[in-house]
From TrEMBL:
Record text on cofactor binding: Binds 1 [4Fe-4S] cluster.
Enzyme Commission (EC) number: 1.17.7.3
Key word Nucleus present: no
Swiss-Prot/TrEMBL catalytic activity: (2E)-4-hydroxy-3-methylbut-2-enyl diphosphate + oxidized [flavodoxin] + H2O + 2 H(+) = 2-C-methyl-D-erythritol 2,4-cyclic diphosphate + reduced [flavodoxin]
Keywords per UniProt: 4Fe-4S, Iron, Iron-sulfur, Isoprene biosynthesis, Metal-binding, Oxidoreductase
Keyword Transferase: no
Free-text function comment from the UniProt entry: Converts 2C-methyl-D-erythritol 2,4-cyclodiphosphate (ME-2,4cPP) into 1-hydroxy-2-methyl-2-(E)-butenyl 4-diphosphate.
Domain IspG C-terminal: start-end pairs: 308-409
Protein name: 4-hydroxy-3-methylbut-2-en-1-yl diphosphate synthase (flavodoxin)
Entry's family note: Belongs to the IspG family.
Length: 420
């Protein structure tokens, strides 16, 4: 029996080749598409007219790791506030590009408030919310004209909740005339893809550079999203924005988004992502950024913060010590990253293990860059620490957590510190 050269291939498929689109503000340039890393983005939920509150939330999202932040521009007051938001961010040294989210009246706001058009780094256009017939065509052309004038890229984002009614009606008539018509769901998916590509082509006809267009087709069901983007990727080379729209709250939204996006990115599809989580009352908007980063890092596509491996616990681990230590270490590592990512290059690739008993504890700790195996129920009250696969010290007593924190800090400085 012959053994193949690589019986266990690992990793995502070769990335679907798309055009490169640059989204910029000042010295900050975020490349999307081609061979650029998959970009994480998010969206504020403040009233954009409140420029202080919006600037604060944009800063929070940017510090959490959002590489672009989208803001709603829906009223004259919101459009007037955009330059003030940009100015406030610049004063704080937050040069994250701002994306304007337009529906219904975007053509008016962009032309009537040129300072808004200039302060934004990209426009999101939904062709389904621009009227009908000639009015829709004129409004779309007006937005593209502004984008070309100020050299701003656009995302043409179609959504099955606001699909072009005229396009859908025409396709339904054509479908009904077929000997074997498609079912309604298949026709809807086709309409999304046709709408996205045809509007992108029209934008190019109107003078928009082909390397300034990004596409998205948003739906709220996992299998529909996978099907639509597989089809879209096979029919165009525009960069693709991935996201499950109206994903939901809490674990439901996280699981659904992960299930859909992980499949597509494993197949090499997708250039930028957003996790559209409904925040819990008083919840942290930055959670959607963290989830997006963790999906990419779990797939091995990017690294943002050191990964913490921790066991789930069982009857051998009736103590909560390992749970508390895993939580504190994970929070500590993420909190340090705004400083560490510049001070300690490569630290985002570090793996830390916090294990709860002797069954897998020592083994997992040896596999990690740095790990600790805490005592389970009935075990000797000691915690061996492993660094780069070698047991280095055994911690005991009531200060294990603080001592391990210090060991991690010293390890990071020693391994990732820049030497002069």
């Amino acid at each position: 029996m012959s053994i193949c050269q690589n019986p266990f291939p690992v990793g995502p498929a070769v990335r679907h080749q798309t055009r490169l689109v640059n989204v910029a503000w000042g010295s900050t340039v975020v490349p999307i598409g081609s061979s650029a890393p998959i970009v994480v983005q998010s969206m504020t939920n403040t009233d954009t007219a409140d420029h202080i509150a919006t600037a604060i939330q944009v800063k929070e999202l940017a510090l959490a790791g959002s590489e672009m932040v989208r803001i709603t521009v829906n009223t004259p007051e919101a459009a007037q506030a955009v330059p003030a938001i940009r100015e406030q961010l610049d004063k704080m040294g937050v040069l994250v590009p701002l994306v304007g989210d337009f529906h219904y009246n975007g053509h008016k706001l962009l032309t009537q408030y040129p300072e808004c058009a200039q302060a934004l780094s990209k426009y999101r256009i939904n062709p389904g919310n621009m009227g009908g017939g000639k009015k829709r065509d004129d409004n779309f052309a007006q937005m593209i004209e502004v984008a070309c004038k100020y050299e701003k890229p656009v995302r043409i984002g179609v959504n099955w909740g606001s699909l072009d009614h005229e396009l859908m009606a025409r396709m339904m008539d054509e479908n009904n005339a077929k000997p074997e018509p498609w079912d309604a769901q298949s026709l809807m998916r086709e309409a999304l893809v046709v709408s996205a590509i045809s509007n992108a082509q029209r934008a190019e006809q109107l003078g928009m550079p082909g390397d300034a267009i990004i596409l998205s087709c948003k739906v709220s069901h996992v299998q529909d999203l996978i099907s639509v983007y597989r089809n879209l990727a096979g029919r165009c080379n525009y960069p693709l924005h991935l996201g499950l729209t109206e994903a939901g709250m809490g674990s439901k939204g996280i699981v659904a988004s992960t299930a859909a996006l992980a499949v597509l990115m494993q197949e090499g599809i997708g250039d930028t992502i957003r996790i559209s989580l409904t925040p819990e009352p008083g919840g942290d908007r930055c959670k959607e950024v963290v989830v997006a980063q963790e999906i990419l890092q779990s797939l091995g596509l990017r690294a943002f913060t050191p990964m913490v491996v921790a066991c789930p616990g069982c009857g051998r681990t009736s103590s909560t010590v390992f749970q508390e230590l895993a939580d504190s270490i994970q929070s500590y590592l993420r909190d340090q990253m705004p400083v560490w990512k510049t001070r300690y290059p490569g630290v985002e690739n570090m793996n830390v293990a916090v294990m709860g008993c002797v069954v897998n504890g020592p083994g997992e700790s040896r596999h990690a860059d740095i790990g600790i195996s805490l005592p389970g129920t009935g075990e000797v009250p000691s915690a061996p620490v492993f660094i780069d696969g070698e047991r280095t010290v055994t911690l005991k007593g009531d200060n294990i957590a603080a001592e391990f924190h210090e060991i991690v800090r010293n390890y990071v400085e020693r391994r990732y510190g820049v030497r002069s």
